[in-house]
Amino acid sequence: MSESEVRVINGNYAAAEAVRLVDVDVIAAYPITPQTPVVEYLSEFIANGELDAEFIHVESEHSAISAVIGASATGVRVFTATASQGLALMHEVLFIASGMRLPIVMAVANRALSAPINIWCDHSDAMAQRDACWIQLYCESNQEILDTIIQAYRIAEHEDVLLPVMVCFDGFTLSHTLEPVEIPPKEKVQEFVGEFEPTHCRLDPEEPMTLGPVGGPDCYMEFKKMQDEAMKEAERVIGEVNREFADEFGRSYGNGLVEEYNTEDADYIVIAMGSVCGTVKHVIDEERPDVGLIRVKSYRPFPGEQIAEIIQDREGVVTIDRAHSYGAMPPLWTDVKAHAPDVEISSTIAGLGGRDIRPEDVLKAIEVAEKGKGTDEPVWINVNA
Amino acid sequence: MGETEYTIGAVVREPGSTRRNKTGRWRVFRPVLDEEKCVGCAKCFMFCPDGCIRPTEDGFEIDYDYCKGCGICSKVCPTDAIEMVMEEEAE
Fold first, then answer.
1. Residue B16 sits at the chain A interface (C-beta within 8 Å)
2. CATH number, domain at A34?
3. Do residue A222 and residue B6 have CB atoms under 8 angstroms apart?
4. Whole-angstrom Cα distance, residue A323 to residue A9?
5. Cα–Cα 20 to 30 A to B66, which of A86, A207, A213, A366?
6. B12 contacts in A (CB within 8 Å)?
7. Measured between alpha carbons, how far is residue A328 from residues A24, A77, A323, A324, A346 in Å?
8. What is the pLDDT at residue A2?
9. Domain identity same for A239 and A330
10. Is the pTM of this model over 0.80?
11. Residue B68 has pLDDT above 70, yes or no
């Protein structure tokens, strides 16, 4: 078996490379910044004969997700990628993918939503899809993008899960930034993901079936409850896949759901997602050994009980949200608070529309935790208003 | 409905599920035909959007398994032979 190879690549390339290694059968995607290079690289792979897949050119993201739903329902591995407005345009179709329990994997290069027009990073796009019953995994590095997309197929296709997975990574901060990434040999990845065996639906003239039927008031709730149970199963499966991946490839990301950094004896806890976690770790290492980080890798399913346990008996806890629920509290804070109602948790909003979250901004968030304020309303970090 | 099989993704594996799922249960108002008033003009038969009115040897019959109770048959009947009755009162 050939060796792993370390290459200096950007996050979009890491995503495309993972798709090549998994060897998907059908790709349908529409270009949108900052995700565009993912599908450009994949087109190149197909044109060069490095990936044997059908690439369906579509006229919109609504069609892209619809095409991969159709392809997935025939019983093949599929992939798509999008961001921002493109993800918003997919919105109504996302629920169909999860309702039909199709193991679709989609890369999302997180980007703000208009207006004003903004192509830079925040998490508003994926947060707006929070309730679409898609698993949402957030990455901190380009290596993690590659590794998580490989894992995502195992999670999505697990017979106890059968739900689509969004692999989210910060637009530009990861998508366009070069990092050394270890690329495992294709045979090893193939061995890890295994041959795709369609479970509940496939195109087979010998076994005709109806997909996407009407489910009236008499049965709709039962199907929705099944989806919720699958999400709960996903919590276990994500952990198992993370462990198995560690055994095979020597890398793991916390327990697959949350990653703890310096939390054991920390007085203060920062809770965040995505690339900003690297900055938080840097601040902990350089200036604040009394602070710990909980990086939420899996936002859906949300490992709320685990987080609630970690944040007990601290001097202060603060969330950093890169999105907001206007007129209410930001999404990450809300989810954490729902599982730890007795813990005082401060809330900050930072990095909307690509505003940098620098080490000094992380320190400002920690300061909010120290003051123990912000439980009633979020503190906007580094904003001139 | 007790007959529904809760399959993953609501996949229906056995063909002919519309025969098993009697969609007439959506109905609020039931069309009731007064055979005395019916002159056999077949307007109801032609206008029913769901194909639920069928000619018989001596008139017409309404398929309550699938009739949604839209009331078009009652509206187009020239002799007011079809009355819309609240479902629970029709029993």
1. no
2. 3.40.50.970
3. yes
4. 27
5. A207
6. 209-211, 213
7. 41, 39, 12, 8, 14
8. 76
9. no
10. yes
11. yes
